[in-house]
Design a protein that fits this description.
There is one protein chain. With 406 residues, the chain is α+β, with helices and mostly antiparallel strands. The chain is 22% helix and 32% strand. The strands form five sheets. Strands 6, 7, 8, 9, 10 and 11 form a six-stranded mixed beta sheet that branches. A six-stranded mixed beta sheet has the order 14-13-12-17-16-15. A six-stranded mixed beta sheet has the order 20-19-18-23-22-21. A hairpin with a 2-residue loop joins strand 25 and strand 26. Helix 1 packs across helix 2 and helix 2 packs antiparallel against helix 8.
Length: 406
């Protein structure tokens, strides 16, 4: 018998965003999508499952979101989206462990007498994990290397191992947990629909999250700064829109602070001009070059990568958004001109009067009319050969003028 409690469920803890509308044990709509950034596709995915279910957002009884562990950026985007939808529609929020999805997928395979060990890929050669018994957590959540998993679970126990972390480290886990077996391949992908019945039962018992207090569970310290969201930003106001004119039941906008949270990409540009994403170095050269070309800056000074007017994500910049990789000198004497080759591979003439010294005697200049760029050591050496002492200051002779370093 249907419980007549449609719940919107989604999880963004892995590279696959999963969403479903469940009504007790029934799945009314379900979809998944592999993404590079959850901020671009999550709302569309939610809309897709609502259409499949034949309902609008105002028809669901609750909104449930995976709270981690998992991807730092994915978890923030997922929970921020859930909170924004709850605020706009006045629906209650539910949260669940992202490890619950694979655990429930393997529950029947484990049967009555065996536990399920749910493992998600934590990157950096680690896994997130938790033991489950008949769909309920039987231990604490942990993060460790597969080679050290015996410190968290009994290596003699016979368990069913499930999740992308179990599948990705199957050989090592087989050595560490010889009495355990790997779940069938179809169980390793997290699916929001697996939690539908469990969440319906919890909803009946009044298991509702505090909207302002709900936070992601990372299990380890993020590599990027965690933004501070004041409780006031999570409180509905008279100006908070409740519906979207383009589709009944969907919010036309989310609170500004939550939108800002959703735009955080997990990208960091370090002092040496290298791109990082959630602690992992971006090694794809063309991708790194593209990210440099997309750098822009908002009016409040925050740096972003922008695809167009609407599609952009914020980034963390350690020093300057651009580096001067090389200098090219044309002409001779006072008529020479100096060109800078930047980290995005563009070339422009040096803005001579913008040269200044910074911390540790590093040299900086203005590029692209508005950005600051730091000269790398090779560029610094070339410029040093063009400097002349003038009393206690240095001057740069170029285009028949003399520019003092500030």
């Amino acid at each position: 018998m249907a419980l007549d409690m449609p719940i919107l469920i989604f999880d963004t803890s892995t590279v696959v965003a999963t969403a479903a509308v469940g009504e007790g044990a029934r799945t009314l709509g379900e979809a998944a999508r592999e993404v590079t950034t959850h901020s671009e596709g999550l709302i569309a995915l939610i809309d897709e499952v609502l259409v499949q279910a034949g309902i609008s957002l105002k028809d669901v009884d609750a909104i449930a979101c995976g709270r981690g562990p998992g991807s730092y950026t994915g978890l923030r985007i997922g929970l921020a989206t859930a909170k924004g939808l709850c605020l706009a529609t006045q629906k209650p929020l539910m949260v669940f462990s992202s490890l619950l999805l694979p655990a429930l997928a393997a529950k029947d395979e484990a049967g009555e007498g065996r536990e399920v060990l749910a493992l998600l890929d934590a990157r950096r050669g680690e896994v997130f994990g938790c033991r489950y018994s008949r769909g309920a957590a039987a231990g604490e959540e942990f993060v460790c290397r597969p080679e050290s998993i015996a410190a968290w679970v009994d290596p003699r126990a016979s368990m069913v191992l499930v999740g992308d972390g179990a599948e990705g480290h199957a050989e090592v886990l087989a050595e560490q947990l010889p009495a355990s077996t790997l779940a069938k391949s179809s169980s390793h992908t997290s699916r929001a629909s697996h939690a539908a019945e469990s969440l319906a039962e919890r909803f009946k018992l009044g298991d509702i999250a505090n909207l302002a207090a709900a936070v992601p569970v990372y299990l380890r310290t993020p590599d990027i700064r965690k933004p501070k969201v004041p409780a006031s930003a999570l409180t509905p106001t008279a100006s908070s829109p409740a519906k979207d004119a383009s589709r009944e039941g969907l919010p036309s906008a989310l609170p500004a602070q939550l939108l800002k949270e959703m735009r955080r990409s997990g990208l960091r540009l370090d002092r040496e001009g290298r791109w990082w994403h959630e602690g992992e170095l971006v090694r794809h050269q063309r991708l790194a070059q593209a990210l440099h070309r997309w750098i822009d800056q908002l009016e409040d000074g925050e740096f972003i990568v922008r695809l167009d007017e609407e599609r952009y994500a914020t980034i963390e910049v350690e020093d300057t958004p651009f580096l001067v990789r090389r200098l090219r000198v044309q002409g001779e004497g006072g008529a020479r001109r100096i060109f800078v080759e930047l980290s995005d591979q563009s070339i422009e003439e040096l803005t001579y009067d913008s040269l200044r010294t910074g911390e540790h005697e590093a040299l900086y200049c203005k590029v692209k009319g508005r950005f600051s760029a730091r000269l790398t050591r090779p560029a610094h050496f070339i410029l040093g050969e063009l400097l002349e002492e003038h009393g206690e200051r240095f001057v740069l002779a170029a285009t028949q003028q003399r520019f003092f370093l500030s």
